[in-house]
Structures are given as C-alpha cells and as structure tokens.
Amino acid sequence: MNLFICTLAAVAATALAQERETESLWTVQENQKQMGLQAEAVGASLDMMESFAKRVGPAAKIALTSVERIDNAAAAVATAKTEILASLAVMAAAKADTVTYSQASAKLGETTKKINGAFASGNAALKAYRSKVSSNFDAATTNSKKIGVATRKLINDMTTAVKKAVDDAVSKGSYTGTSKHIYEVTGIKHDDPSSYWDGQAIQSNSERGNVKGRIFYKVKFNLEQPGWWSANSDELFMACSALSMHLREQDGIERDLRPPCNHYNHNRVGGLGQCIQIDHSYFSHCGGGGYWRESLACGGVSEAWLRNTVGYETLEHNYDRHLVHRTSANNHGWSDSYRSSSYQYTLCTGGNMAYKTKPQ
Question: Which of 135, 159, 192 is the last residue in one of the domains?
Fold first, then answer.
C-alpha cells in the first residue's frame, strides 16, 4: 500500500467531513503506515511459503503415501494469498469512496481484521505443511538412497553393454578406411594435420555459380614414400579421408573430403570412391588465358597453389597414370604409379552439402 497515496486519501476524507473529528491527522497517517508495513510483511511471507512449497514439494511427494496431503496444504496457502489480495482491493476501493474519517477508520479496521485472519490462516497452513514434510523426510531420504544405488548399477550395466557392443562391432567391422588403415598405407596420422596438410582452406572464386564458394584443401598423400601411389590410387583418397576425420573431430562437421576430378569431362569411376566433379575444371592444365584462366579451369583457385599436385584421373583413362600440374601455368604431364616423385600433393574438396563450410 503506497503510504503517500493513503495519506492523501485520509486528508481528502477529513476535509470533506461535515463535522470536525477530534482524531488527529497524524493518527490516520500512522494507521496507514502500519497497514502498509503489515501488507508488505504478509506478501513476503506468502512468497516464502510458495518458494518453500516449490522446493520441498517434489522431494516430499516421493516419500508421501498420499500426495493429496501436500496438495491440500499448498491449496491453503494459495487461498490465504487470494484472501489477502481481495482485502487489499477492498482497501483501495474504500479509499476512493470515503468521505469522513469515521468511514475510513471503519474500513481500515475491517480490512485489518481480514488481513490478520488470512495471515494467520497462511501461517497455520505453512506449519501444517512443514509438519507433513518433516514427518516423511526420513522415508524420502531412504528412498533417495535406494534410487541412487539402483541408478548407479543401471548406468554401470549400460556402460558395460555399450562397450561390449562397440568392441564387437569393431572386431567384426570393415577395416578399410579406418584411421589405422590410413596410417598403415600412407603413414598419415589423421590427428597430426601439420604433417600432411598445408593448413589452408581455399575458397573458390570461380565464374561458375555451382563452383564459387567451394572449399579446396591440399594434402600430402603418402608420408612413407612421398609421391608414391598404387594402381588403385588408394593413397589419394585416404589422405583426403584423414583430413576429413581431423576436421570432423574439431568442429563436428562431416565433409566427405575426396580428390576433385582433374578434368570435368573425364570419367570419374575407380579407386576408393568417385572423385568430385568440378564444372569446367582442368586442374593440371590451367592458369593461362581463355578457357584455361584461373577463374574457370583452375576451379577458382590460384594456379601457383596447384603446382606439384597430382590430379586424379579415372583408372580407365590412361591405365593407372595421373596428370600432374608442373611448375608453371598450362604445364602438365603424365606420372606413373608405384614410384616416388616430387609430385607429393593432391587436392581435396567436399562430397556432401558441407562443401562450402570452412573449418571452424
């Protein structure tokens, strides 16, 4: 109750009185102040009751054999609050309609009784509530301990079962393409990216709308025997897979990295998977003018960055040989498998919808 407003109401009531009352204006103000403080105390107490019910109620319900006892106690608290709010509303209405101090005093007295009654009812409900909760606290504690033991056992059993299932799956699953397989074939540890990746993720600036924005990577494909690949070109695909694994562990995004097709119009079947077709590309022979410009045949990346890279060609194109981008623009040639060379890198790019997503 706003003390200032109440005091103004009392002044207005006194001024409008037809007979001067002997009651002092200061007494009216003190009554209003007392009522305001009491209303604030009641509101704070009710807030405490509701907070207590919210915190203790769920735990107590676990132990109580009859949930209704808690609900009834909470209902009593709610009823008390409703009565108090109604009484405060009556007080506000009385203030507006009062014309004499006697009337104001009568209304204040009536409202005081209502507030005191509701406050007592609320306190009684809270005490009863606490009593019910306390009487069942030991049972709740015992139940909680039992639940805790059962839960821990369940978690341990589930952990054991999951581990066994994973171990069984690993022992019976495919070995091809795993990090261990990649390491044994290429010497690449996927979680040591600095040993095989140049650290760059180049965004394409291609003139082709379906290529522009695509991310390209450059990796060494064989650390055991630099520049060496087998007839099946496993090394090129595995190097891209290693980087794909590493990036997924960093940001949780699977990119399905694979070598891009060296020429957009050549067949792309063979090896561990299909290469990624890049519209109008010719990676091993680009960097000049006309069609061979960087923004088209180079896939929208720098020609200088492509130097010394092996461009994947299908195994049906020229046996198991690949075209390599030499040390200048529009300069390429065939390189044989099963031999080391200075052409130690290959390109990688995404094979799924994350092909434009840079490492996070």
Answer: 135
Do 131 and 252 fall into the same domain?
no
Q: Cα separation of 102 and 23, whole Å?
A: 9
Segments forming the whole domain that contains residue 242: 179-350
Q: Indicate if 195 and 282 belong to the same structural domain.
A: yes
pLDDT single digits (tens) 305-315: 999 999 998 76
- Of 102, 135, 168, the last residue of a domain is 135
Q: In Å, how far from its chain's centre is CA 266? A: 43
Phi, then psi, of 104 in degrees rounded to 5: -60, -45
Measure CA 300 to chain center: 35
Query: Rounded to whole angstroms, how far apart are CA atoms 257 and 255?
Result: 5
pTM: 0.53
Give tens-digit pLDDT for 95-112: 555 545 555 566 666 666
Q: Give the span between the Cα atoms of 118 and 348, in whole angstroms.
A: 76
Question: Which phi and psi (to 5°) does residue 263 adopt?
Answer: -125, 130
- Pair (124, 195) in one structural domain: no
15 has a pLDDT exceeding 50: no
309/281 Cα distance (integer angstroms): 14
Q: Read off the pLDDT of residues 232-279 as tens digits, 9 standing for 90 and up.
A: 889 999 999 999 999 999 999 999 999 999 998 876 654 455 889 999
The whole-angstrom separation of Cα 118 and Cα 343 is 90
Helix axes 25-63, 3-16, angle to 10 degrees: 140
Nearest CA to 340 out of 195, 221, 239 is that of 221
Name the pairing type of β-strands 345-350 and 309-311.
parallel
Is 254 a member of any domain? yes
Question: Can you point out the beta strands (E) in 83-152?
Answer: none
Are 198 and 129 part of one and the same domain?
no
Q: Are strands 332-335 and 322-325 parallel, antiparallel or unpaired?
A: antiparallel
Cα(346)–Cα(279) distance, integer angstroms: 18
